Amino acid sequence: MPQPASLQASAGGFVLTSQFRAVTTHFDNSRLDGAIHRTVQQLRQKTGLPLSLEATASAEAPLTIEVQGAGEAIQSIDENESYTLSVTPAGAHIEAATVVGAMHGLETLVQLVQPSGSDYILPLVSIHDSPRFPWRGLMIDCGRHFEPMDVLKRTLDGMAAVKLNVFHWHLTEDQGFRIESKLYPRLTAVGSDGLYYTQQDARELVSYARARGIRVVPEFEMPGHSTAWQVAYPKLASGNPPTSIRRDFGVADYELDPTREETYQFIARFLGEMATIFPDPYMHIGGDETPAPDWKTNPRIVAFMHAHHLKDNAALQAYFNTRVLKILTGLHKHMVGWDEILNPALPKDVVIQSWRGEASLAQGAEQGYQGILSAPYYLDAMKPAGTHYLADPLPSSSSLQPQQRKLVLGGEICMWAEQLYAGTIDSRVWPRSAAIAERFWSPENITDVDDMYRRLNVISIQLEGLGLHHLTQEDASLRELAGTQNIDQLRIFASALEPVSFGERYHEQKTSQLTVLNSFVDAVRPDPPSRYKIARLTETFLKSPQSDSADQAALTHWFETVANSVPTVEKQMQHSPRLAEVQQRAQQLPDLAKTAMDAIHFISSGTHASVGWKASKLAQIEAAKKPSAIVRFTFIDSLNLLVNAVQE
Amino acid sequence: MPQPASLQASAGGFVLTSQFRAVTTHFDNSRLDGAIHRTVQQLRQKTGLPLSLEATASAEAPLTIEVQGAGEAIQSIDENESYTLSVTPAGAHIEAATVVGAMHGLETLVQLVQPSGSDYILPLVSIHDSPRFPWRGLMIDCGRHFEPMDVLKRTLDGMAAVKLNVFHWHLTEDQGFRIESKLYPRLTAVGSDGLYYTQQDARELVSYARARGIRVVPEFEMPGHSTAWQVAYPKLASGNPPTSIRRDFGVADYELDPTREETYQFIARFLGEMATIFPDPYMHIGGDETPAPDWKTNPRIVAFMHAHHLKDNAALQAYFNTRVLKILTGLHKHMVGWDEILNPALPKDVVIQSWRGEASLAQGAEQGYQGILSAPYYLDAMKPAGTHYLADPLPSSSSLQPQQRKLVLGGEICMWAEQLYAGTIDSRVWPRSAAIAERFWSPENITDVDDMYRRLNVISIQLEGLGLHHLTQEDASLRELAGTQNIDQLRIFASALEPVSFGERYHEQKTSQLTVLNSFVDAVRPDPPSRYKIARLTETFLKSPQSDSADQAALTHWFETVANSVPTVEKQMQHSPRLAEVQQRAQQLPDLAKTAMDAIHFISSGTHASVGWKASKLAQIEAAKKPSAIVRFTFIDSLNLLVNAVQE
C-alpha cells in the first residue's frame, strides 16, 4: 500500500536468509545508504534475521539496487519518482533514475515480505511503479496545538512508508506562532505560549524529510489567521489586536494591514529569513478566512481602497497577494494558498489548495491555475477511511480538458489541530492517511474498499513498528480514565464508539486551546475496526439472511459481547468522574444491542415483529444519534438497516 | 509511592476545581516554576480540569509552596530533600528547604489526587517526608545497546515520579563508546557503531535531570570493559586488541595498559574533558571484571610489576586505580567503582558499588569505605518486583556498627543491556523500579508486598501517562509477531509467560549485539500481573480450600481462560514463523492448566487422586520448567504448590 501502478506476480518466492544484503551498483550516496539502512532495520524487525545493516560492495548480494543518480538537489514536483522492482529466485533487483525512486522501491520491498512455512519470503514479482500525482501531501497544523519534534519525525516515517512526498507544515495561527525568527523574536516570545520550533529544529526536520524523499512546504498564514503576528508586532494590525494570543478557536477578526508599506517590508524580511531555512520552491501563505471587518471601518484602509480602486475586501486581499507574490518571486518561490487567494488579478503560477471542494479546484483549473485538492481529506471530519479513499482528486468523469487536467497536481490530507495534541494525534492521522496516500499514488481504478481495509489493517501494524502510537493510545488513555489496568471490558465497550466530527464536537464542547484533551472521546479512534466489520457483516447478512449462517452468528456474537461489557464499565464509572461522562452511552448500548439481536432474529427466522416495533426501534436509534459525550456508536447505520429490514 | 516517612490522614478532602493554582512564597526560581508546570500538567491530565499552567503571585491560590532557597548549585548527596505537605479544607501547602525538596512534595501531591463522587479531591493529610538513603540510583547500560535521548528523558521522568535521584549513565563498553570526545574523536568514530551521544546531548540530559532533582553520574569503564577505547587507540592496549568493536557479549580479555605513562595522560585529558560536561562530584570508573591475561604474559608489564613490587593482577589494578584516583582528585571528583576496586591501598573516600552482594558491601563498610548496594536490584535477573522490594540495603539485622552504617549511602537499580533495546527497555525497567525506589526512600518497616503490588498497579498507569511504554510494548510486539490486530487470545496466552533470567537466555540464545530483539520473549514482560495474582490466589485457596469459594472460582476461571486461548494462537503460528517459536509452550499450556484445574477440584472437593497422579503431574511440571523459547510460565510455582497439596 499504495498499490503499484503495475505488478505481475508468479508462483513461488525468494527465501530471505541472514545473508540477504544490499549492494548498490552504478551509483551510491549517503541518502541512498540511509534508506537502505532503514529498510534493513525494518526487514530485521519483520523477519528476526540478523541482517547486516551496511550495504556491501560485493556483487553477490541478493538485493541489487541500481540508481542512475542522486536526483534533484532540491526535490521538485518534477522529480522522477518511478522505480522497477523485480524478485526472481536469484534475488531482488531495484532500478530507479533517482534516489527518491529507489526509496519508493525499498518501501515496496519491505511490504512484500511474507511468511511461507517456517521462512520469510519475497514473492516473485515484476513491478513497474510511478505515482499518479506528483503532489501527495499531509498538512499538520502545529499552530493550534504544538507538536513536539519526535511526533513530527514519526509522522514523516509513516509518510515515507506510504509514499507521501509533501509535508505541509502549518506553522502560524491565531493561537501560536511556532517558528523562530531571529529578525523578529517577539513573534514567538510574545506570539506563542513558549512552544515553538527553533531554526535548528526546522532545519533538522527539513533534512529528516529529505532523507525520506519528502518535501517540506511551510505555511505562514496571512493576512488572516495572524493574531499571533499582531500580538507580537501591533503595527502590523489593521485594527486593534488583542494583547495576547487567542486561546479560543474559530475565525478571528484580526487581519494584517495591507495598506502600509511597513507590512510588506516586514513580510519580505521575514520570508527572506524563512527562505534560508526552507529550500522548497513552494511557500504557502494561507490566505483563507479573512473577514477583515477593520478593512471596512478603518478610515485609512477605506481611503486606501478608494484611492487604489479596490472595490471590496476580496480586491484588497488580491492586492495584498500580488504584493506578497512579488516578494516570493524575488525569493525564487512559488506561491501556494487556500481557495480564497483565487483571483483573476493573480498570475497563473500560483497554486490553489482547495479546502472548498472539487468544484472550486476545477474552477481554478479552468482559469489556468494549478491546484491541490484537500476538501475530501479533512481528517478532523472523523470520516471512515473508505469515504476518503473513494474521493478522487481528478475523476475520469471530470469535465476538465486534458491541458486543464494537468493542472491538478494532486492532493493533501489536512490534520487541523483544534481537538488534538501530541498524545492523540497519531490515531487521528493513522491509519486513515495510508488509504488516502494510495488514492494519490495508485491508478484511479484501484477502488476496492474491502481490499483496501484488508491491507490497511496490515500496514497499520507496519506503521506501529515505525514508532507510531495510533494503536496503543486508546489502551493507554482507557487505563488512565478508568484508573486501572483491568480494561478488557472497557476496551470492548470503547470499540463500539468513535469521536464525532470536528463540527459537532466544537458545538458541544466549545473546545479551546486550554481544554484538556483527555476525555473518552480523545481515547477512542475514528473509524475503528468495528465500524467496517459490522457494516460489512450487515450487508452480507441482509443479502441472504439465513438462520444459523456465519454472518448471523458473528453479528449476534458481536452485539452480545459489547452489551456484556457494560456492567463492568458502569462499575468503573463509579470510581472515575471522567469516565462517567459516557454514562448515557453505557445506558444506551445494551438496549441498542438487544434491538440488533432481535432484528437479526426476526430477519433470519422469517418471523414478523409486532406492529409498532419498528417505529419504536427507529425512535430508539434516533435518540441514540443525539449528542452525548461527543462520541457516537460505530454501528448505528448498520442497526438502522437491520431494523428497516424487519417485517411487521 | 514511595510511601512518605510520616503521614497522618483525616476524613474528608479538598475538592479540586479549575481555580486550583500554585503560588510560590518566600522564594521562586525557574527550576521550581518548571516543576510546578509539570505538576499542573499531570493534574490537568488526571482531573481533566483546565488548570492554569503558570504559578501566580496572588496569595489566594489554594496551593502554596514555601521554599527557603534553591539548594546546592550542584546537587550533592547532602542536598536536603525533605518536605512537608499538608492538605486542609482550605488548600494544600508545601514547605521545603530546597527546590529539590519541593519537587518531591509536588510529586506526592500528584499521587494524592483521587476521585470522590463526581469530583477529584486531595484527601486531608499531613505529611513529613524525607528519604531513608541519600543515594537512590538507576543505572542504564547504554554501551551494549544505545538508547536514544527520548528514551532516557522519559526514564528520567519516571525516576522523578518515584523520587529516584541518581541517574548512573554507563557510557562505555566493549561493544560501544557512547560519548563524544572532541579530544579523542576516534573513541566514537571507530569505537562505536555510529550511535553515541554528542556533548550537546549529554549537557542537555544533565540539565533535564537537574530540572527533576536528579544527579547524573557518568561511568567510563577502565581498565576492563574497554575494548572500544583500544579499538580506537591501540596504544592504550595491554595486548593485541581487535580492530573493531565486539559484537558478542561476556567478559573480554582486553585491558588498558596500566604501565605506560601515556595511558594516564590519555585518561587525564579525557576525564578532564568529561568533567566539563558532567558537574556531579562523583565519577564512576567501572573497574569490574578484569581478567587481564596480558598482564601475565606481556613481558613489559611483567617487568613493570616486578620493578614496582606488584605481586598480582589485583595489585596492578590497585596501582592503576591509585593513579586514576589522583587524576579524579585533581578534577575535584570522588571516585566510584564496582566491588573489584576495593583494595586497602585506596584511600577511604572512594565509593564502592556492590554488584556482588550485601556481604561485599558490609566488608567495604567495615574497612571504612562508603558503599552503594546493587546486587539485589539487577533487573535483568527478571525477578518479581516483590523480591527486589524485600531486599534491604541496610537491614536492621546487619552487624555493622552505627558509624559503619552511615557509610551505606543507598542503592542502585541496574539495567544491563545485552538483551534489550529502545523498543523493549521500558517494560524491563518499569514498573519494577518503582518498587525498589520505595525501598530506597521509605522507612525499613514498610514491607507489605500485597500493598506494594496494589500501589504498583496504580503508579504504573501514572508512569504510562508520563510517556513510558512499559504497558503498550507487549501489545505492539504481539501484533507485529502475529501479523494481525486480532490479538485478544494471543494477549491472554502471553499473559501466562514471562522472560527467563539473563543467564538462562544468554545460555540458550548466545545473544549478541546483532541479535534482533523482537522474539516472543522480548514482547512479554517480567513479573506480569498474572504471576502475583495466581500466587496470591493459590496461597489463600490452599489456606482454606473450600469448594465454590471465590478463590477457587477465580483460579479455575483463569486457568480455563489461558488454556482456551491456545487454539487461536496455534492457528496464528501457522502464519508467523517468529510466533511459532513458542509452539512448545502452546502445547504445554492446556495440559498444565488441566492439571491445575484437576488439582483444584481434588483439593476443594476433598477427593483423592489415584495413586501415581501426583508423581506424573510433578514430572509434567518439571518438563515444563525446561528451557523453551526462553520464556517461562508465570504460574509454575503456584501449580507446583497445588499439585503437592493433592492427596492420593
TrEMBL record, chains A, B:
<dbReference type="GO" id="GO:0006689">
    <property type="term" value="P:ganglioside catabolic process"/>
</dbReference>
<dbReference type="Pfam" id="PF00728">
    <property type="entry name" value="Glyco_hydro_20"/>
</dbReference>
<feature type="active site" description="Proton donor">
    <location>
        <position position="289"/>
    </location>
</feature>
<dbReference type="GO" id="GO:0030203">
    <property type="term" value="P:glycosaminoglycan metabolic process"/>
</dbReference>
<keyword id="KW-0326">Glycosidase</keyword>
<protein>
    <submittedName>
        <fullName>Beta-N-acetylhexosaminidase</fullName>
    </submittedName>
</protein>
<keyword id="KW-0378">Hydrolase</keyword>
<feature type="domain" description="Glycoside hydrolase family 20 catalytic">
    <location>
        <begin position="133"/>
        <end position="443"/>
    </location>
</feature>
<dbReference type="Pfam" id="PF14845">
    <property type="entry name" value="Glycohydro_20b2"/>
</dbReference>
<comment type="similarity">
    <text>Belongs to the glycosyl hydrolase 20 family.</text>
</comment>
<dbReference type="InterPro" id="IPR017853">
    <property type="entry name" value="GH"/>
</dbReference>
<dbReference type="InterPro" id="IPR029019">
    <property type="entry name" value="HEX_eukaryotic_N"/>
</dbReference>
<dbReference type="InterPro" id="IPR025705">
    <property type="entry name" value="Beta_hexosaminidase_sua/sub"/>
</dbReference>
<dbReference type="InterPro" id="IPR015883">
    <property type="entry name" value="Glyco_hydro_20_cat"/>
</dbReference>
<dbReference type="InterPro" id="IPR029018">
    <property type="entry name" value="Hex-like_dom2"/>
</dbReference>
<dbReference type="GO" id="GO:0004563">
    <property type="term" value="F:beta-N-acetylhexosaminidase activity"/>
</dbReference>
<dbReference type="GO" id="GO:0005764">
    <property type="term" value="C:lysosome"/>
</dbReference>
<dbReference type="GO" id="GO:0005975">
    <property type="term" value="P:carbohydrate metabolic process"/>
</dbReference>
<keyword id="KW-0325">Glycoprotein</keyword>
<feature type="domain" description="Beta-hexosaminidase eukaryotic type N-terminal">
    <location>
        <begin position="1"/>
        <end position="112"/>
    </location>
</feature>
<dbReference type="GO" id="GO:0016020">
    <property type="term" value="C:membrane"/>
</dbReference>
